[in-house]
Amino acid sequence: MHGTIGARNLGLERRLSQAISGEVRFDSFTRGRYATDASVYQIIPEGVVFPRTADDIAATLVIAKEHGVPVIFRGGGTSQNGQPIGNGLIVDCSRFFNAVLDYDPGARRIRVQPGMVLERLNTRLRKDGLFFPVEPSTATRCTIGGMTGNNSCGARSLVFGKMVDNVRAIDALSVDASAMHFDAGPPSPLGARMLALAQSEAEEIRLRYPKVQRRVGGYNLDALIEPRPNLAHLLVGSEGTLAGFTAIDLALTPLPAHRVLGVCHFPNFRAAMETTQHLVALGPAAVELVDNNVIVLGADIPLFRNTLARITRGTPNCLLLVEFAGEDLAALQAKLKDLDRCMADHGFPDAVVEVLDAATQKTVWEVREACLNIMMSMKGDGKPVSFIEDCAVPLDRLADYTDAVTAVFEKHGTRGTWYAHASVGCLHVRPILNMKTEAGVKAMRAIAEETVELVRRFEGSYSGEHGDGISRSEFVEPMFGPRLTRAFETVKDAFDPENRLNPGKIVRPLRFDDRDLMRYPEGYATTLPAPANLDWQEWGGFAAAVEMCNNNGTCRKLAGGAMCPSYRVTGEEQHLTRGRANSMRLALSGALGPDAFLSPEMKETMALCVGCKACQRECPTGVDMARMKTEFLNQYTARHGMTLRDRLIAFLPRYAPLVSRIPALANLPNRMPRLAALLERFTRLSARRSLPEWQKPWQESDVFAQPSDLRGDGKDIVLFGDTFNRYFEPENLDAARRVLLAAGYRLHRVQPSGGSRPLCCGRTFLSLGQVAEARKEAERLVEALYPFVVRGARIVGLEPSCLLTLRDEMVAVLPGEKARAIGRAARLVEEALAEDLKAGQIALPLSDQGGVPVLLHGHCHQKAADAMGAVETCLRAIPGIRLEVVESSCCGMAGSFGYQSETIDVSLAMAELSLLPAVRKAPPEAIIVADGTSCRHQIVDGTSRKAIHVVRLLDKALGAKV
Question: Using CA atoms, how far apart are residues 535 and 556, in angstroms rounded to an integer?
Answer without folding.
Answer: 28
